[in-house]
Amino acid sequence: MRVLGIESSCDETAAAVVEDGWRIRASIVASQIPIHRKFGGVVPELASREHLKRIAPVVDEALRQAGVNLEEVDAIAVTQGPGLIGSLLVGLVYGKAMALSLEKPFIGINHLEGHIHSVLLQNRMDRANDASIPAAGFPNVTLVVSGGHTCLYFVECTAEESDTPSQFSYKLLGQTRDDAAGEAFDKVAKLLALGYPGGPVIDRLARYGDSRRVELGRIRMKGNPFDFSFSGLKTAVLYRVRGTDLQAEADERRAWQNGTNQKINPEELRAHCSPATLDLLAGFQQAVVTDLVERTLGAARARQVNSIFVAGGVACNSALRDHFREAANLSGFKVFFPSPKLSTDNAAMIASAAYFRLRAGERDGATLTAHASFPLGV
Ligand code: KG4
Ligand code: ZN
Q1: Which ligand is nearest to the CA of 344?
Q2: Ligand 1 within 6 A of 314 CB?
């Protein structure tokens, strides 16, 4: 089954052609980062306008790279939510119009389900190349950690056909009560004038700092141990910066960048950062990573699973990957990540998640609409 997937929930316009849930024939992602960079975050109105401009060429390019025409597509899947409503509607309406006019099966997919499936998709591709790689197992605990979400799920596969899992169920175990982890990275980077998005740049610069010199402490909360909270940590960073030399240094960096819309070379940026700033970044990253790993491992223990999946843009973080692998090894869990390309928003994960639902006979019709808030597994 060949599925055309379309994803436009935030600031990436993406289309992909995926066969049988795992053979990626094409995956195109048109990033809007240069448009939003000067604002230090995604501007919803600009995002939907940009999706409008790009959706048709991005879908055409995915079909061209896959070497198929629309007639040769078996079904069309779109992201239904959660996300920015104007952005979501562009991809959803485009895909729906195509499906209706071509009389193809059509389905809406939860963006978070897509992220969860990115891990399985990666694993199935890896195992096709190297059968000695362990299969990403079920049930598992999945951490979806991105700019918009920080959620922990208990994921079960309710039916397994030979080597191909078929139906899934999701239970939300906990989520952030305030900022998402990626949002905290982006806000700290903005505060310190390090450019946008903040995650990749902090990942890079933190390697030159010493987290032991900046102890930001554990994130403590009452109630559900699998919930997250990152706004306090962001405020702790703010207090260490405000009115200090670090603030003056950040102001200088801001003036140096002078509202540039260009991506700043990380090495050049590093030359504009004092050791104290690099230590603060290392301390901040360490605090986020420790919290994500500990709560996820706690959930995996509570649910008595063997496998942990980690997905979403923050899953690209090198310290998070290292720390997860180390901690999982010590505790006897297997941990699975998608490649960085499949960790950030993409349409291959939407097409892949759709495959299993379509195969089970699920279809949506002309009344399908987008939802900015669209919980999974509650
Ligand atoms: O999954 P994604 O592309 O979009 C959302 O659904 O939000 O994630 C984007 C987020 C941004 O906040 C970005 O700063 C963060 O992922 N990110 C990272 C890294 N790469 C991207 N955060 C930490 N370390 C990274 N290497
Ligand atoms: Zn996402």
Answers
A1: 1
A2: yes
